[in-house]
Amino acid sequence: MLELKGIRKSFPGVHALQDVHFQLEKGQIHALMGENGAGKSTFIKIITGVYQPDEGEILLDGQIVKIANPREAQRLGIAAIYQHVTCYPDLTVTENIFMGHESTSKFSRSIQWKKMHTEAKALLAELGSPIDPHTEMGTLSVAQQQVVEIAKALSTKARIVIMDEPTAALTKRESEELYRITEKLRDSGVSVIFISHRFEDMERLGSQVTVFRDSRYVGSWPVAEITNEDLIVAMVGREITHLFPKKKADIGAELLRVENLGKTGLFGGVSFTLAQGEILGLTGLIGAGRSEVCQSLFGLLPADTGEVRVRGKLVQIRNPWDAIELGIGYLPEDRQKQGLVLSWEIGRNISLPMIDEFSGTWWLNEVKEGDVVKELADSVKVKAQGISTVANTLSGGNQQKVIVAKLLGTKPKVIILDEPTKGVDVGAKAAIHEIMGELACQGFGIIMISSEMPEVLGMSDRIAVMREGRLVKMLDRAEATQEKILEAAMGSATEALHG
Amino acid sequence: MEAKRPFSARRFFLQWEWMLVVLFVLVNVFNSFLSPYYLSPTGLRDVTMTFLDKAFIVLPMVFIIILGDIDISVASIVALSSVVMAMAFGAGLPMPVAIVLCLVVGTACGAFNGWLITRFKELSAVIVTLATMIIFRGIAYMLLENQAAGHFPGWYTFLGWGYVFEVPFMLIVFVVFAVFFAWVLHKTALGRRVYAMGSNPMAARFSGLKVDGIRMLVFTATGFMSGVTALFLTSRMGSTRPNVASGYELEVITMVVLGGISTSGGKGRLIGAVLAVFLLGYLRYGLGLVNVPAQILLIIIGLLLVIAVMMPNVLSRKKLP
Amino acid sequence: MDKTRRASRNLGLMAFIVGLSVLVQVLNPSFLTPENIADLTKNTAILAILALGMMLVIITRGIDLSIGATLALSGMIASQTVAMWKDTHPVVAVLLGTLIGLLCGAAVGGLVSKGKVLPIIASLGLMNVFRGLTFLVSGGKWVSANQMPVSFKAIASSGFLGINTLVWIAVVIFVVGWWFVNWNRVGRQIYAVGSNPDSAQVSGINNDRILLLVYTIMGGLSGLAGVLWVSKFASAQGDTATGFELSVIAACVLGGVSIAGGTGTISGILLGALLLGILNNALPLVNVSPFWQTFIQGTIILVAVLINALVKRRGIRATMQKRKI
């Protein structure tokens, strides 16, 4: 029903899309895959009318259409659900669903709240969700908010729903719920395009998969007819044999001992140890308190109870600089917001936490700074023209390497990596895993938070599983399996996630 | 990887500061056509003393705006410290003690702002300093009501009117402070951290910067410099009232943004603000020579402020795809 | 903020207002006399009208410091007009003042929406422009009571059903305002823009237009208030209502309008304006020096925003403690 032919779009200096084709059938769930920067987002923005293509045509039901703006897209029955759920936290669910197309009475132009609440309830019920439409959006979980977003798409009578990495922030169970809802959408005749980095999503949902690479169309296959290996080749243009190159590192002396750590409302009773050369995988559902534990170790969320010992010595970590002083480094989950000053050069970004080291008697020794920074950047193989390259011109994977370099500059002994490969493409992922392996060999202790099962299983020496703020299971590499981890992470199967 | 970015003449001359230099020259040429009395060396020298008082606050305000914050309480701090000094002297304290008290009060006000802002992070600097702006001015009124206080010793007049080797004392002090602030901002680790906090506050915190301490320090320094302004302003006027320095916050902020320091934080250099101080000062002097009323100046400054802020926004929007 | 918390906040404000009134009445029995109540409501009416406009601005994460100057400018022009043409109908004067206010507000709104200037900077700059213009059009002179025709001064002194015209105007504006923010699409869009500007854009809301609208409404209300003000005080000066914007902001934060945007209720600002109106009225009655009023007002703003912040924190902590681990 939707077809795009020969789409070309360029921005000053970059070809964002070159000769791209796409074909969507009625009632089809179509996966769109590709590395970051492959042009998926630009493509979506063309379908939703945010951008206009320079060349090529869009056909809807065989008719050539021009989608001039998002409003026009909505009128044509195209709705998009973006990666970061966009909602109005202060407004009710009903308002979130109907914003922009409220029903008003003919006579007074007043909003018909009663009617809208009823409709919202019906829409949510249709999706099998018990959310009360009077609730304020800000009080819902991310997964619930996403359901509301889907209800919103339904309320606009969308025939084509586009989902941009819908499962990225969801737990396994929540993803299942989303699959169910998506299938329901399909069964009612809606076509779905979704972008994802997870093969699982594609296998579970998609009937057709289209791959983009380097702003170009690579191909389109029925999901049943293509293997993951072939897909990876299509996405990266090369074969990756070792996705998780875990090197054998010698496990040395104990670096960190955490006992009974707790913070009201976030986590409690967390105990574990970390030794030199060890990679401790910390996994669990999102919201289980993994990041919170690590942020409290880094002083961002100082703990209320419990003890932390670094090399056997009892320490107090009230601030990030306490943590850095003690040799704890933290790689935040959100590269662009928490990790980098995007408008700065690579060099200044790397030197930021250790800037004091370059203070001379009178002024900063920028020559020394440049040398040290260059060495750090080279040690993690940042690919850029020079250390004066501005950070926001780098790819996601390279940005991540810059943050790793910045982290290493503070000379940590314990390195905490919060979702280190989230949202980076397959090639960069492998490079980051390699760096992790090397660091472990050099005697660093690494805590890696990850939601991605193969990564956790492939990289960790031991795996700690958290559920609802508690560390519920500690598994050795040898005994760990996907099933054991999932069982620990989810608890009993009868527990409901909603409400 | 290359270590350093090569020097580019084009980039060097495309800086906003050159634009200010050109404007500065234009203003002077324009003024000398307006009035034959304008281009007298002593006149050009002495006029600096009429506008440099508030320039002391411009220096720390550059830091505040680079941090992405704003402080609109500075004029009230000037009034309060000036009033306290005058009353202390009036109560029989020796003048040096009164001067110290003036600086202490200014610093304390700034520290109070800093404390509120770092302690209550959910409040923006706008609303905090809006409230303290009223409070500080209110205290000045409580202390002095609608009276004036003065009768300072003769030597105190030197601050605002004196010369050292034919150079106004005030100008010398300003240059010393300006060099100091420029040094801190551009040549020290602290300055680098200030830029980092303004460019991405979250990343600065995650990088282990003592963000609260830095913010506290910058607001306290602003209070101190407001105290310095109070010293010179009071010396120029010979007496003080609770309503002195009203509207200074506007002029100071105007000078800073006109100097190319972006209100979105993280951008700009101190020299730009200093240039803007002189640009506005001479503009005002020239217009004064041809008897343009103060109200028109008010309008001009207001318009300059909004235009200076708007220009880069409008221009950069055009360049985007 | 959820509904129950909002309701308990309003109840608390009401209790405070009652307590304060009782206290003042004990200290000075002339507080709750018909004359004083009439005077109090008249004053509060102007404050409340402006608070309504300011609430809309603050909901969009903005602030408008220029309204005192707008009020003075439109009051000045309106009173000069009636002083020159004595038979000008009062309604014409009101419309003229409102029109000037709308223009001033549109200028601020244009800078904020199209020029992407921070609201505080845009309004601070234009505050001075408007103030300067007021001095220019007046030539530094006053328009005094004897220059104004009786019909003009009657705007503020007349009444209907024993209630002052100013109060009636405020009531009408509040009823319309209540409908607008709760039952009108554009009214709800104001909340949407304040709550999440990015997604408002995606929903097809024209953020710039909403911003322009709220500042224009604010300006229009200030213009109207300007005419009412000069009619009430029977004089128009260059420095009329200097600093009045701060009282208006105080009324808003007292009424629970969040400076972070997205929230604010009509009932809240009504109570906030009433509380502030009572304070302004009562302080002279209980012999507080007029020179203390600035300080008291500033302290009220500060305490109100601090309490708002602390209440919010406590709410967060309470939810935290409720979560079982």
How would you portray this structure in words?
The complex is a heterotrimer of chains A (499), B (321) and C (325). By secondary structure, chain A is α/β, with parallel strands linked by helices. Chain A has two domains: 2-236, P-loop containing nucleotide triphosphate hydrolases (Rossmann fold, 3-Layer(aba) Sandwich), CATH 3.40.50.300; 254-489, Rossmann fold, CATH 3.40.50.300. In chain A, 33% of the residues lie in helices and 25% in strands. Chain A has 17 helices and 20 strands. Chain A has a six-stranded mixed beta sheet, with helices on both faces. In chain B, the strands form two sheets. A two-stranded antiparallel ribbon of chain B has the order 1-4. Chain B is globular. With 325 residues, chain C is mainly α. Chain C has a domain at 49-241. Chain C is built from 13 helices and two strands. Chain C has helices at residues 3-27, 34-59, 67-84, 90-113, 119-138, 150-157, 165-183, 185-195, 197-202, 207-233, 244-254, 266-285, 293-322, and strands at residues 159-160, 163-164. Chain C has a two-stranded antiparallel ribbon. The relative contact order of chain C is 0.19. At the B-C interface, α7, α13 and α15 of B face α5, α11 and α13 of C.
Q: Which sheet architecture does the biggest sheet of chain C show? A: 2 strands, antiparallel
Beta-strand residue percentage of chain C: under 5%
Under CATH, the homologous superfamily of the domain at 50-246 in chain B reads ABC transporter involved in vitamin B12 uptake, BtuC
Largest sheet of chain B: 2 strands, antiparallel
Estimated radius of gyration of chain C: 20 Å
Strand content of chain B: under 5%
Please give the radius of gyration of chain B in angstroms.
Answer: 20 Å
Helix content of chain C: over 70%
Q: Write down how many β-strands of chain C occur, each being a DSSP E stretch of 2 or more residues.
A: 2
CATH topology of the domain at 50-246 in chain B: ABC transporter involved in vitamin B12 uptake, BtuC
Compact overview of the structure:
By secondary structure, chain A is of the alpha/beta class. Helices cover about 35% and strands about 25% of the residues of chain A.
